[in-house]
Amino acid sequence: MSKIYDVIVLGAGPAGLAAGLYAGRSRLSVLIVEKGQDGGQISITDEIENYPGQVVDQPESGPSLIARMTEQAKKFGAERVSDTIKEVSLEGEVKVLKGEKGEYQAKNIIIATGAHARPIGCKGEAEFLGRGVSYCATCDANFFEDFEVYVVGGGDSAVEEAMYLTKFARKVTIIHRRDELRAAKSIQEKAFKNDKLHFMWDTVVEEVGGDGILSWMTVKNVKTGEVTKIEADEDDGMFGVFGFIGTIPNSDIFKGSVEMDERGYIPTDADMHTNIPGVYAAGDVRVKSLRQVVTAAADGAIAAVQVERSMA
Questions:
Q1: Catalytic residue from among 6, 38, 140, 284
Q2: Which is catalytic among the residues 139, 179, 233, 269?
Q3: Active site residue 38
Q4: What CATH code would you report for 133-243?
Q5: Is the overall model pTM greater than 0.85, yes or no?
Q6: Nearest alpha carbon to residue 148 among 221, 234, 45, 220
Q7: Class of domain 4-117+247-310
Q8: pLDDT tens-digit profile of 113-128?
Q9: Dist CA 167 CA 102 (whole Å)
């Protein structure tokens, strides 16, 4: 691809789509590169209640919100390509991105690659992924209708997804390594009122197993050291374990090119500038105190406006 864009946006989550919308509206030539489905993590969220402007008492799904963002970016001229970027060259006035399908060039780059679910970290986890272990309640909840499921984590996402799972599962138990939740108080209040939701405090999952499908796990009390084996109900023959213990930034491809912290997140200033001129980071991939749809969209808008001003 010989065209040199004003800006290439890597990622089509809320940050990337907002960046594409603002860049296109500013009459910049913009290309959004996304390797998978639009939306990133929010595309697997069943209900969003805290995005400004929503109709009160009418929460919508992540996919429906993202669909509107995608159409907005398209309306204002953002071009699209589906590709996986394998190599980047970010120095100089023209940045070069090499993907599986082609090569792309731009004067500016907005990194909006987001983050992905952090593994639970127990033995057997990878072996039983998709056979009892999941990181997406929206994707897999229906597989566990009338079964027991366990949710590992104690933050907003873990508790919200656990409540969603109660719509399907017979019983949902939150396993948390502390003796209190980290979720927002408003979310905790809803959780504690849910009769189908139970709690296993001061506990971590040590191992999961079964004969082809998840049917047992061992958990350890972090205070007493006691290890307990939990087995599926004989009639069920299986149960589910959902992990929601944080995220890992999708930034590996930029290692050695852009400054990162020890966890792989990209530091920026308030205007989304990285340490490389013409390279910006927006959304969950950057260092920030709050990772929500609204902050990701704001990041993308700021980054695009900064690109426009740099070229004025």
A1: 140
A2: 139
A3: no
A4: 3.50.50.60
A5: no
A6: 234
A7: alpha beta
A8: 999 889 999 999 999 9
A9: 44
